[in-house]
Amino acid sequence: MNKKQLRAKYKALRSDLSDTQIEDLSIDIANQLLKLPIWEKSFYHVFLSIDQHKEINTEYILNILQGKDKNVIISKSNFEDNTLAHFLLLDTTVLKKNEWGIPEPVDGIEIQEDKIEVVFVPLLAFDTKGNRVGYGKGFYDKFLAKCGSETLKIGLSFFEAEAEIKDVNDIDIRLDFCITPLKTVRFNPL
């Protein structure tokens, strides 16, 4: 399938999930993450869930990171050029939902992409080669292209891999891992 078809398919599959299923699956994904050998890093980027899109609840991952005393980075979207600015999440960080329902920091300490060691990547679908389908605006591909070559890119998905995304292009950034409720899929060795 191509990206457009996959977006439609996985938006429909997500819309069928109950709130209880989302919570249970999100906990399962967080538990799968604990098995990865990634916890010696210092700077972790996490997306904040958009409730109306029935995204994975990343609060469980935030709790793990805060419990391990890691630096947590969150983003603020610029819809004029489809880029992200990244800020350190502190106890004093004020979050506000933007007009698209994305929780974002009002302000804070900005962190450059090359400092980020692990990125938990939102997605709608992924394939067996580590390609992903997002919402189609390119925010994360632009962001990941600016990260260091050693930055781990970890997708989070309620669903298992598709065989192939047909219309992958040169600007698409592949994942190193994708975490589902049932398993961890590795695309690149550590």
UniProtKB/TrEMBL annotation:
Q: What is this protein called?
A: 5-formyltetrahydrofolate cyclo-ligase
The signal peptide stretch is: none
> What gene does the UniProt entry assign to this protein?
ygfA
Source organism, top-level taxon: Bacteria
Catalytic reaction(s) noted: (6S)-5-formyl-5,6,7,8-tetrahydrofolate + ATP = (6R)-5,10-methenyltetrahydrofolate + ADP + phosphate
- What EC number(s) has UniProt assigned to this enzyme? 6.3.3.2
Spell out the NCBIfam families in the cross-references: MTHFS_bact
- Summarize where substrate binds, as residue positions: I50, E55
| Annotated residues for binding of ATP | K3, K4, Q5, L6, R7, R132, V133, G134, Y135, G136, K137, G138, F139, Y140
Q: What class of enzyme is it?
A: ligase
Q: In the UniProt record, does the keyword Nucleotide-binding occur?
A: yes
What family does this belong to? Belongs to the 5-formyltetrahydrofolate cyclo-ligase family.
What processes does the entry annotate via GO biological process terms? folic acid-containing compound biosynthetic process; tetrahydrofolate interconversion
Species of the source: Aquimarina muelleri
Which cofactors does this protein require?
Mg(2+)
Q: What's an example of a GO molecular-function annotation for this chain?
A: ATP binding
User: Which key words tag this protein in UniProt?
Assistant: ATP-binding, Magnesium, Metal-binding, Nucleotide-binding
